[in-house]
Specification:
Two copies of one chain form a homodimer.
Chain A: E1 2-6, E2 13-18, H1 25-28, E3 36-42, H2 46-55, E4 61-67, H3 76-88, E5 96-101, H4 103-115, E6 121-126, H5 129-135, E7 140-145, E8 148-155, E9 160-164, H6 173-190, H7 192-206, H8 210-230, H9 245-255, H10 262-279, H11 285-297, H12 310-317, H13 321-324, E10 330-335, E11 338-342, H14 347-356
Parallel strand pairs in A: 2-9, 3-4, 3-5, 5-6, 6-9
Antiparallel strand pairs in A: 1-2, 7-8, 10-11
Pathway (chains A, B): Metabolic intermediate biosynthesis; chorismate biosynthesis; chorismate from D-erythrose 4-phosphate and phosphoenolpyruvate: step 2/7
Protein name (chains A, B): 3-dehydroquinate synthase
Domain 3-dehydroquinate synthase C-terminal (chains A, B): 179-323
Amino acid sequence: MHELTVDLGDRSYPIYIGEHLLGESRWLQPHIPGKQVCIVTNETIAPLYLSRLKASLDGYQIHTVILPDGESFKTLEVVNRIFDGLLESRHNRTTTLIALGGGVVGDMTGFAAACYQRGVGFIQVPTTLLAMVDSSVGGKTGVNHPLGKNMIGAFYQPYCVLADMTLLGSLPPRELSAGIAEIIKYGLISDYPFFEWLEQNVDRLLVGDQEALAYAVERSCRNKAEVVAADEHEGGIRAILNFGHTFGHAIETAQGYGNWLHGEAVAAGMVMAADLSWRRGDISADELARVRDLLVRARLPVTAPDDMTPARFVELMGVDKKVLDGRLRLVLLEAMGNAVVTSDIDTDLLAETFAACR
Amino acid sequence: MHELTVDLGDRSYPIYIGEHLLGESRWLQPHIPGKQVCIVTNETIAPLYLSRLKASLDGYQIHTVILPDGESFKTLEVVNRIFDGLLESRHNRTTTLIALGGGVVGDMTGFAAACYQRGVGFIQVPTTLLAMVDSSVGGKTGVNHPLGKNMIGAFYQPYCVLADMTLLGSLPPRELSAGIAEIIKYGLISDYPFFEWLEQNVDRLLVGDQEALAYAVERSCRNKAEVVAADEHEGGIRAILNFGHTFGHAIETAQGYGNWLHGEAVAAGMVMAADLSWRRGDISADELARVRDLLVRARLPVTAPDDMTPARFVELMGVDKKVLDGRLRLVLLEAMGNAVVTSDIDTDLLAETFAACR
């Protein structure tokens, strides 16, 4: 078991990373202050892991809320079902919510914990690779609104995170790849030696090698934790975590959310950001090719869909010259392993990237 | 104009207290970081003060959300209307929400500000005496759930509070009295000289003497601010602010919310808490009479409704002997101007209080 601390002063918390952690009571129990626990999970995960989690919580008063599975249910109305459950089973201010699931369950459960009686305890047990390396670090919680993703939420830190590699055995290969996209991101934005490690070891991740997965999760969380500790509320540097995301969001919006996985859209978006970085002269053609090759080996898309014309990107990213002045900020590579946020963007080069990456 | 600072480290904020403050731009503008402002008010207040507030915000991009008036609309669904308005008018993370109204508008607007894009700016312009002395200090925001009052919310501090006595001119006399109940509370729990001042000056408050009102608001806010600064998240001492509230909530629940005003129920509840304090030997019969007399002069109820039998109180407060062990905590007077929180409660004395205060 590896333990990593996310260093946020009096809101610091540990991430436990390893194999066969879920059934053991010793990881979670020190982080549960009261006698009440509310497990929030979804219909897909509950049959797989709920009983194992419950078995490790002997002696607690446990209530379970099972949500429908999918990003389309990440809404205020569905969070209200968690409040219903908490109030019906009379949970008080000492209760602890445990999110057992992927990013959607984690985001909603964290937001519910932030708001229930103005804040109760919260533990994350991520069941996807993406949730382990992304949403379990940093305290971003919330829900979508019909007019925008993640528009309603809170910064709220868990008491601990339990990342059990064993749970990844049930993850569909496409979701495993989507998680690897975010892992590669950390190599690109802040940890070039990790990028090189990934070039050597990506195949081990793809076949579910638990030791390699644990190493990649720990190193990803460590990279993210450093950025978050420096800028918890995203006033500045934290924005580099959005590398590939502005292009990726345009793709997700155009395709309708859910057709491309988030990690897949980010993968294509990272290639676009790297392509623009190369056109600006900040990375070499060889380095750009290595970014693309690694993502291809991870079975991720490296181009936008055919119907994403440059005009469509311009529309979705709001980047016509009129509105551009200082508004569009992109995360680009100054070098491999070193991302910067910039609003100094040459629209001609950007147009070339749009045209090249389809 | 009097200025008072609520001292909460990097979340400290000023309360401006005086007359004719609303129309002046100089109070609010320094606390608005961006160009976007969203005013949230209700149907009753909008015709009275909305145009005056808008006139002081020349040059800003203003969106207005007008909510229905009343505690029954303090729900997650109605808060969602604020989110709808913010997103439809494309407000970004630099927007500032201004609550123009009483406690319900303030609680909902503060909660919306806490959650919109994980936290944006927020200013309170209370239009009731109760909101000026209670909800505008301390950062408690939130909404009700069908199964409990204020069960969903956040601790979230405003950037500033503007308490303009001029606005109290339109307040119905019954609501003025309800606000005075909370003012008397501060004298009882932590400021005996203020209680004596109120014995001298309560009639001036009742006739709307703006100088006396400003003094009472400032001194109340100062008392509350000291308690909140010592215990922002209600881990301990802050509970003394609930003096009279446990009895009062039982009355409100029994009568159905909205039939008694909150301040009225608290007034009767404070007499009950003082009565029990006298039975425990902590204040004298004369002091108890002074509490009752001052509340009567403020035109507030000093007994529970006739149909509130002792058995009904026992039921609503969950105080039968079986469940009592350590569960019921009451705020009582150790002396005039000195409240304590205790779970050491003699159920026989409590029964006498239930019987006596009808």
